[in-house]
Automatic annotation (TrEMBL):
The keyword Glycosyltransferase does not apply. Pfam families: PPR (PF01535). It comes from the Eukaryota. InterPro entries: PPR_rpt (IPR002885), TPR-like_helical_dom_sf (IPR011990). This is Pentacotripeptide-repeat region of PRORP domain-containing protein. Keywords: Repeat. Residues 1-10, 23-33 have a biased composition (Polar residues). PANTHER family: OS08G0520200 PROTEIN (PTHR47493:SF1). Residues 1-33 are annotated as: Disordered.
Amino acid sequence: MEINSLTLPSSRMPILLKDSPSGAPQQHNKGQVNQLRIALNRRNEKGASGGMHSSVDSSSLLQKNSRKRMFPQSDGVFPDTKDDGYMPKQTSLCVLMLYYTENGLFPLAQTTWEQLLYSSFVPSVEFISRLFDAYAKHGKFDEVVNILRYVDMRNFSILPNVYSLAICCFGREGQLELMEDMAKEMASRGVHVSSKTGNAFVLYYSIFGSLKDMENAYGRLKKSRFLIEREVIRAMASAYTRERQFYELGEFIRDVGLGRKDLGNLLWNLMLLSYAVNFKMKSLQKEFLQMVESGFRPDITTFNIRALAFSRMALFWDLHLSIEHMEHENVIPDLVTFGCVVDAYLDRGLGRNLNFALNKMNLDDSPMLLTDPFVYEALGKGDFQMSSEAFFEFKTHRKWTYRALIQKYLKKHYRRNQIFWNY
């Protein structure tokens, strides 16, 4: 269906571009709004004098004002008018709408929105997404609902996508009740819930909700027969870790299924972590062997989960075997691995034997940190690792190696109990 251009009488153009007299944001942006008004008027006058339609060349106007930082680039939100179906006047109003909303000029944004409603305006999903984000940034969730109602009233085909955008918008801001109400409305209207929307529910409940709410959302996702995504698994694992519910974490991982190849070693590493935190060493070893037998190749995170547990339990022989296994699998040790060895020996007063423990590791490599961060959430960082990261923060031209870091740390370690008298 062809969309007619929105023609504004010359008497109404000042109303559209009139500065709002109230609020600090309007005063702050007054100069930019005036520049935009002058640009629009000049373009319209030029078009009228040339016998052309008095619409604004929105593409060039957008690029010009983007360079002046009046509002950001469209990023594909307003594609070429021939492909998108928007007439130039409508595209210009969309640009104004986003600019006003992102800068908190809500009276002007409302006026522009009304002008768009008077035309046969069919918004794109990208435009609505940007608009939702702008309103949510300022806490204007009622405006998000109003836009959704407009799309619903006009019976646009993008309604399911707009529902999903609204749910994600509410979820990102922690508005779980609004997110839940929107889901119930979708179900009552018979709107299909996509896998992305279902995963978004679990994700935001993991971040902002309780464990019970999160598990209920996960249960609904399973009933819908949707596959849980990697990001959501990590968020749920982080929620269990925050509450120190590691048995529940292990049960969740088993429920997802350890055989999923598309997630790499993520599920197996989380399972091993649930045992390592509680130092269930037999179960840890059993699951590790099961992982290898199932065709999964251990990575640096897998080895370091075991190394951290061995280090803190002073299981030196198992720690040495784990390092030899890493060498056999061509897995390069990182800062966490070295920290496990150094901390294990120094905490038991065995610093003299440290050279024997490190002789199979390349001390002249540059330090790297390759372990997945969820390990630190559960097990924390060792003293050597924290000390080394503190050295990295100094802006020096020195090229650090593991050998240099260990020497610095040993010097600090042996001096920690010395008392210096200032006479």
